[in-house]
Amino acid sequence: MSAPQATDVMEDVPVVPVDLSVVVPAHNEERRLGPTLDAIVGYLGANEGRFGEWEVLVVDDGSTDGTRDVVTAASGRDRRVRLVTSPDNHGKGHALRLGVLASRGRRVLVTDADLATPIEELEALAKALAEGPSAAIGSRSAPGATIERHQSRIRELLGRAGNLLIRRIAVPGIRDTQCGFKLFHGDRAREAFAASRLHGWGIDVEILQHFRRSGWPVAEVPVRWAHQPGSKVRPQDYARVLAELAALKVRSVRPADLLAVAAFLLMAVGLYAGRWADPNHRYLPESLQDQNQWEWFFAVTADNVAHLRNPLFTTLQGYPDGVNLMANTVMLGLTVPLAPVTLLLGPAITLALAMTLGLAATAAAWYRLIVKRVVGHRGAAFTGAALAAFAPPMVSHANAHPNFTVLFMIPLIIERALRLCGGERVVRDGVVLGLMLLYQIFLGEEPLLLASLGMVLFAGAYAILRRDVTKAAWRPLLKGLAIGAAVCLPLVALPLYWQFFGPQSYKSVLHGDHAGNSPLALVSFAGRSLVAGNDETANALSLNPTEQNAFYGWPLVALAFAIVIRLWEHTLVKALAFTAVAAAVLSLGPRFRIPLSNSTVPGPWALIADKPLFESVIEGRVAMICAPALGMLLAVAIERLARTPNIGNQFIGFTAVAAALIPIVPAPLKSVERAQVPAFIADGTWTSYIGKDETLVPIPLPDSGNAEALHWQTAAGLKFKLPGGYFNGPYGSERIGIYTASPRYTSSMLRDISFTGVAPVIGKNWQAQARADFAYWKAGVLVLPPQQYQDQLRQAVDKLVGRPGTWVGGVWVWDLHD
Question: Is the pLDDT score of 377 beyond 90?
Fold first, then answer.
């Protein structure tokens, strides 16, 4: 940046060494400036033995009154008073920059023209500066400060709010940035002001931020202060300061960080490229029926919000019993704030946006955590975060489970917990942690549970390895966690009560005996790996394409092992290695089969498999904890390689990293043309078949294996209700969780026919049972779309109803009002 344009009217003053420069910005200060200059000159003149040679620079910032004449008169009395002029008014920041850059002092004091802080307070600042910091700033908020005359109440409140925002955004730890009385190390002040860009009141924040980033200590010194009449701060200046802070925040972001976030976004868009080609008419087939379910979740939440209905419950599915939405993965933390988008653009586009942006935000959050806590090398942090967010299990869940890919809060929670260990602001950090936990609960409870398990594994290992750190950290950590719980639990108590004890709540969800990972899955390749992917192998080793929870590939496992061996002396590496290995072993389940044999052995998961909350977890998902642990190990290794002076070692190391990562680079998710909604639904023909409080009954009833009817319902604007459905609900007297409504005789029989094509002999008993079930569902019309075994289904329904169906709008229809 070129030097600011200004005129120093005292250029003929002999150049002598100066110990102290006092810079006073002034704009139309004719009335107040004279007494201020008299006070400054008198005080410095009486204390020359203490402060040495001095000068006073008054910067006239385009005044239109007699400000310059006042300075000229003062200069006539004492040649050490100098006038620096700017032809136009640009603001306090511009004036200070001109004055500081024109100064020659070994120390530089900046003070406001009203001298709200008396010049005598310079002694306290000089004493603090002599103790080693690069700046000593006057503070009205530090303990010991004296406010002799207050501002108006509204201005004080605005000032406190502004200081809180400034501490949060720019200079944490400084209570008062805006007190206009600051003493700087001269050369460092000139360097900081030369690098500054702001013209207005935000200059104080920009300069202090420069000192902080340069590692130059700043001491905050309590001072006397009194509000002076004629303040130049106007109400609109508060808004301008906020705008300057925003600009400062944007400029403070490193280009490498922006490039990393942009790259994560491009990676997420590339992964979902097939859907974005036509989001309303493309389907991810490897999501099975989950895309239909999640679009319905977004649609029903938006509908509840629009009509001010309870967002925790609905009867649009599972009629008449309904669905406990809090007990399902509805992600109210996303579906509620995105409700306007859903209402405007539809649930298909909203889901695509949420999953794409959420995955990119998750990668950015891991990147931020790794940069702040693990490595400073941006390239290493980017690689580690990319592995954490785009590892094979994350890509698998990206087909269908936004609750397991939109995880941007998890790194933030981890970082806040680490802050608590430092013990500096336990109460504030505890409150923030509680609010973060609250929000994550509404994003996904199972990911939070698994993340907590991972944090416990890491903390346990680190505590054993570094007892000195543990001794200092455990008290503030426990206190902060207690504060966080006290903030979070009262706010989430009602939703959690509804989830576990409300209507259609359930006790646990059973996933079968093979929900754990095979040991081979940990070293094999996922189906969506671009280079080494093998659908046949991956499907044989996983529950389904959405639950490929391991599949890190043997090259990455081998590389991680080599990194741990090479960097074993580092405590962080040991703790991360333990976390990854422990999570991998737990993910094998309560019993796992020894590869290439028929033998099984107990796994450690058996110790917690039947414990509350853990009983509903798909244990194979625990291997997802390995992704960020491996990412951080990789980041540490890459940073170490980047600093290695031996080119040969760098080549070998980076080649090994590439060989481990290239095989697991994900291919874009499979996308196909979406099945069309039958004209009977799409053109509204159905409306003439359903009366008030009646339902439309698809044949067979929708469930986790066939939820296309949910797409019909969202396409129709949720104007009709469905029995059955795809959601978690209770079954039987023990209220065990299942993935659909409690089956009835007729729904079970129709489902069996849709799978086998074989119908039972239908007589009066079946017909009577069907009439009872239709009445229970309040069925107005039965709808059979084209599908496998449709003839067998149609014939069965003809017999149940007692008359043949009618072909209407691309489906077979039985009007139950006839």
Answer: yes
